[in-house]
Structures are given as C-alpha cells and as structure tokens.
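FW: tagging you since you asked about this chain on Friday. Here's the raw sequence from the shared folder, copied in full. Didn't touch anything.
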Amino acid sequence: MKQNETSGRQLQLAEERTRKEEDDRKAAQEDAKKQRRHKWFSHVIAVISLAAAVVFGLLTL
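HL: got it, structure written out here
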C-alpha cells in the first residue's frame, strides 16, 4: 500500500512539474511577443521623429 501511495505522489509531482513548465513556456512566449511589439513601436517612433526632423530642417532653409 505504501508503494502505491509513493508512486501516486511521484505521479502528482510530475504532473505539477509539467504544468509549471507549460505555464513558464506560455509566459515566455507572451513576454517575447510583448518585446517584439515594443521593439516595433520603438522603430515607428524613431522613423516618425526622423521624418519630423527632416521636415523641420527643410522648413528652416
């Protein structure tokens, strides 16, 4: 009976580890998606700033 309880506990721990690994993987994917989005927005802002600087430079000629 004791061996059955031990193997049941080991199975439960393995399932918890698997669940935690899946949660960690999903969190990492979400984080990567947010970082890509942030990088994209940063590039857009840089391009807009550069365009504004060029327009301002042309207007002051």
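FW: Helices lie at 2-59.
HL: agreed, and DSSP finds one helix and no strands in the chain.
FW: great, closing this out.
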